[in-house]
Write a structure and sequence with these properties.
alpha/beta, FAD/NAD(P)-binding domain, Enolase-like, domain 1, five-stranded parallel β-sheet, binds flavin-adenine dinucleotide
Length: 416
């Protein structure tokens, strides 16, 4: 048994943990970072990055199949899913090497072991070593929620971890839950031609979104012939036969259960330890974990109520701030600009969607976008929201043509 001294000890090397480590080290602190699995956490190894890598391939595949309208004819389009997986792994490894190098350059001591936080100043490893730390950050992340009757078996009933490692695509899949993970996988699978069905307990798909966004998503999924059951759940599963709550019976080859994630914390929280990211059970997004890390290391506060949400795929869905259903009717101004009113959308053949702004006293308090490039457009509005820039002031900005952002400019004139 040995004892070591550090300024800062961090458990978990996901976006929260590695960001805190890099920033604290830059600020001159000696830092030890523990990771029991792979550097990069869920985001890099089992979340944001691998799903977006596979999503990208699925979109190129679907576009290639449907490019005749653009005047392009192709021969037989073949998919080699093992190559899709190979590329996903390459992307992960490349990015992981980048983070590992950054940690090395910053002189962060990385220990690839499970660690236990004993108290507000001590971390223990299984071999009995003690790390005395002036400060401790717990960034242990989260794991897929297990639902009774839908326990993961890695073969038929899959978690978001299991589905990433499929070596071949199924013919059909049932997705339980229509949050970000469920919808992104529904898009991936249907792009690849897998017969995809969604079961959602709430009244609408993507129930965390603004009501008009949810309704638009439903319309888009109907057009794409992705059936979904609302106000529904899984009643029973017997011999791969799935009975849903309306007694309809489905026979999917696989089921993906995407019904949320639970924090990786077994004991009670320890006073004096700072908890950041998914483990807090608040907003489970990588950028939220990153901002919480920077808030801790660099004392840069951030508006948690303005944390952006993005669902990737075609079209992107992005929002921040208040939703229409959260506000009393009559207290706000609202405007919706159709993406089809923008020249660029016709050039790109991507006319689906809208930009919706909610404002009070000439300040934007909610933004909800369904569009190609929605994630980038959202960021422009967020800067205005964060800085209380009025809609009048925003009108002074020159927006390039032809762009999707012009839709923001148009909306400003409709909202006052
Ligand atoms: C399929 C999927 C897609 C996603 N897509 C997006 C997206 O597009 N955008 C987005 O913002 N978010 C996305 N997320 C969420 C995002 O991955 C998480 O919000 C983010 O990873 C949280 O970061 P974190 O640092 O809090 O924890 P994590 O990334 O979960 O990292 C925690 C780390 O701690 C380690 N650990 C746990 N306990 C111990 C211990 N005792 N000792 C040592 N190490 C330990 C774990 O092994 C893990 O590596 C997605 C998640 C999933 C599952």
């Amino acid at each position: 048994m040995e004892e070591f001294d550090f300024d800062l000890g961090i458990v978990g090397a996901g976006p929260g943990g590695y960001t805190a480590a890099l920033h604290a080290a830059k600020n001159g602190k000696s830092v030890v970072l523990f990771e029991k699995d792979e550097i990069g956490g869920i985001c890099l190894n089992k979340g944001c990055i691998p799903t977006k890598s596979i999503l990208h391939t699925s979109e190129v595949y679907a576009q290639t199949l449907n490019c005749a309208d653009l005047g392009i004819s192709v021969g037989e389009v073949k998919l080699d899913y093992s190559k899709v997986q190979e590329r996903k792994t390459q992307v992960i490894e490349k990015l992981r090497k980048g983070i590992e190098l950054a940690l090395k350059n910053a002189k962060v001591k990385v220990i690839k072991e499970e660690a236990k936080i004993k108290n507000s100043t001590q971390i223990l490893t299984k071999d009995g070593n003690i790390f005395n730390c002036k400060e401790i950050i717990c960034a242990t992340g989260s794991s897929p929620r297990i639902i009774k009757g839908l326990e993961f078996d890695g073969e038929f009933i899959l978690s978001s971890d299991d589905i990433l490692n499929l070596q071949a695509l199924p013919k059909s899949i049932l997705i339980v839950g229509s949050g970000a993970i469920g919808l992104e996988w529904a898009r991936i699978m249907s792009n690849f031609g897998v017969q995809t069905t969604i079961v959602e307990m709430a009244q609408h798909l993507l129930p965390i979104a603004d009501i008009e966004v949810s309704k638009r998503v439903e319309r888009i999924f109907k057009t794409k012939k992705i059936p979904f059951y609302l106000n529904s759940s899984i009643k029973k599963i017997e011999n791969k036969e799935v009975t849903i709550s309306n007694d309809e019976i489905l026979h999917p080859e696989k089921i993906l259960v995407a019904t949320g994630r639970i924090p990786n914390i077994t004991d009670n929280k320890i006073d004096g330890v700072k908890y950041i990211g998914d483990v807090t059970g608040q907003i489970q997004l990588a950028h939220f974990a990153i901002k919480e890390a920077i808030e801790e290391t660099d004392s840069i506060p951030f508006r948690k109520d303005l944390t952006p949400s993005v669902i990737y795929g075609t079209p992107e869905i992005a929002w921040a701030g208040k939703r229409e259903q959260d506000l009393e009717a009559g207290t706000l101004k609202k405007t919706t600009t159709l993406i089809s009113s923008l020249g660029k959308s016709h050039c790109d053949n991507e006319t689906e969607g809208f930009i919706k702004l909610l404002a009070q006293d000439k300040k934007i308090i909610g933004v909800h976008i369904v569009s190609k490039e929605a994630s980038s457009m959202l960021q422009q509005i967020l800067i205005a929201m964060q800085n209380d820039i009025t809609t009048d002031k925003l009108k002074e900005v020159c927006f390039a043509h032809p762009t999707y952002s012009e839709g923001i400019f148009e909306s400003l004139f409709k909202i006052n």
